[in-house]
Design a protein that fits this description.
This protein has a domain at 7-66. It has a three-stranded parallel β-sheet with strand order 1-2-3, covered by helices on one side. Strand 1 (7-10), helix 1 and strand 2 form a beta-alpha-beta unit. By secondary structure, it is an alpha/beta fold. It has two helices and three strands.
Amino acid sequence: MKGLVDEIRLHPPRECWNIILETDYIRSAKTGKSDGISIGIEVPALPGLDLLIPALPFLDFLNVNELEWVIQMRTRCEAEGMNLLMISIMQLKGHANGRRTVPA
């Protein structure tokens, strides 16, 4: 895969962060690094990020994403004690009808 892939981002679920060193995520990271591929973990900004500290020596990067509220995640976010602070809808001016004319 070297030369075809410049990095691999692994996405371990929150449920395995406390045993991250025992997972296939770390085994995959070791294999990728030995093949010369940049390896990282990408996770949402949830409580417990410190559980990933033991994985850092095996990674090239750790990407922490801010949380975005989507209706499909409402139940899970509320179970984690996270509630929606504000609802806002943003729309580009002139695009209320969902279409526009593009000059030729």
